[in-house]
């Protein structure tokens, strides 16, 4: 007997709608019982198909924002007040049952610790099947073909479904988590410090992967990080979080080359001096994995670039062979 899905179809903006055009718009305060508020009147929006980087110091509330957007903060003893508009629906007004139509299906989360995010006792195929059936029970028999497609997107072979988490490297485990996150082709992917536990070569591969998913699947990404160099290489727009509020936001060039807020200037000033870069602007051009100047009819289009390419003929650098290292990441 087929089980009918009770989830509404993805919301589409219509001419004349009074609803906001942003994919996600948060106006929230949040915190934990017995402590001062972590987020205080935060106002943040993400447009369709963009990569927005949220930057702040450790403990500034970045991860709390991710959990609040998904209505998960309560499971950690937290509270949230305000509005979380996604695809024209205020998620704060939804029941837990209705939230399942969005969380994990239209909005996915990639955490910073792949080792603790996967069940060590279950084969990866079992975990993919559970992630698929939880949201599409009426199409349960199709889980394998969609899981194999998701693995192909992250450059992993289909036989990974027969492995257990302990049989893959840390970089491969992060790619598995990303594959599970895009299993239902969500409109928004929230990546919470996804490269913090990885070596620099693996980080570069993950950043290129995010850029490719954004370009080809049109998935918007909320990239949460305190790593300014990865932010400069990936994001289209940057929001600076301090003391529970967004104090500065703008395009990557605007934030990194012309920081206006004192806290933004402090963050930029903390970047290490790199002798082979004539300027921060030159460094950014060398690191970009997306082309923020490309456009298309329905919004921005971003071409994936090689972060190891060196355009200055006076500078020499060795480029790792990323294609040959895929199997060990």
Can you describe this structure?
It is built from twelve helices and twelve strands. With 329 residues, it is α/β, with parallel strands linked by helices. The protein has a domain at 24-106 and 184-328: P-loop containing nucleotide triphosphate hydrolases (Rossmann fold). The strands form three sheets. Strands 6-7-8-3-9-10 form a six-stranded mixed β-sheet, with helices on both faces. It has a four-stranded antiparallel β-sheet with strand order 2-1-4-5, covered by helices on one side. Strands 11-12 form a two-stranded antiparallel ribbon. Helix 5 (143-153) packs across helix 6 (170-181) and helix 8 (228-234) packs across helix 11 (280-287). The radius of gyration is 20 Å and the shape is globular. Mean pLDDT is 82; it is low at 1-5, 11-19, 275-280 and 293-329.
Helix-strand layout with pairing:
Layout: E1 24-32, E2 39-46, E3 51-55, H1 62-69, E4 78-86, E5 89-90, H2 96-99, E6 107-110, H3 114-117, H4 124-133, H5 143-153, H6 170-181, E7 188-192, H7 200-217, E8 220-225, H8 228-234, E9 237-242, E10 245-251, H9 252-257, H10 262-269, H11 280-287, E11 295-296, E12 299-300, H12 322-325
Parallel strand pairs: 3-8, 3-9, 6-7, 7-8
Antiparallel strand pairs: 1-2, 1-4, 4-5, 9-10, 11-12
């Amino acid at each position: 007997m087929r089980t009918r899905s009770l989830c509404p179809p993805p919301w589409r903006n219509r001419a004349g709608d009074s609803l906001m055009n942003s994919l996600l718009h948060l106006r929230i305060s949040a915190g934990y019982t017995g402590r001062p508020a972590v987020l205080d009147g935060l106002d943040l929006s993400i447009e369709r198909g963009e990569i927005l980087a949220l930057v702040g110091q450790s403990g500034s509330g970045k991860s709390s924002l991710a959990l609040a957007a998904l209505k998960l903060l309560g499971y950690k003893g937290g509270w949230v007040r305000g509005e979380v508009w996604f695809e024209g629906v205020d998620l704060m007004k939804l029941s837990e049952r209705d939230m399942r139509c969005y969380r994990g299906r239209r909005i996915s989360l990639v955490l910073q610790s792949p080792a603790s995010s996967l069940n060590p006792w279950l084969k990866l195929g079992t975990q993919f099947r559970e992630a698929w059936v939880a949201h599409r029970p009426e199409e349960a028999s199709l889980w394998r073909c969609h899981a194999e497609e998701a693995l192909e997107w992250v450059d992993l072979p289909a036989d990974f479904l027969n492995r257990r988490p302990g049989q893959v490297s840390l970089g491969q485990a992060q790619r598995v988590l990303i594959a599970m996150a895009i299993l239902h082709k969500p409109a928004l992917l929230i990546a919470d410090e996804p490269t913090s536990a990885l070596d620099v070569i693996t980080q570069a591969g993950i950043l290129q992967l995010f850029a490719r998913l954004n370009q080809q699947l049109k998935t918007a990404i909320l990239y949460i990080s305190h790593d300014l160099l990865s932010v400069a290489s990936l994001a289209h727009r940057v929001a600076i979080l301090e003391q529970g509020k967004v104090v500065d936001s703008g395009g990557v060039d605007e934030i990194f080359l012309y920081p206006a807020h004192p806290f933004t200037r402090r963050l930029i000033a903390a970047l290490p001096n790199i002798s082979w870069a004539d300027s921060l602007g030159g460094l950014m051009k060398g690191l970009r994995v997306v082309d923020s100047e490309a456009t298309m009819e329905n919004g921005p289009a971003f071409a994936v670039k090689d972060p190891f390419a060196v355009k200055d003929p006076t500078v020499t650098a060795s480029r790792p062979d990323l294609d040959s290292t895929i199997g060990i990441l």
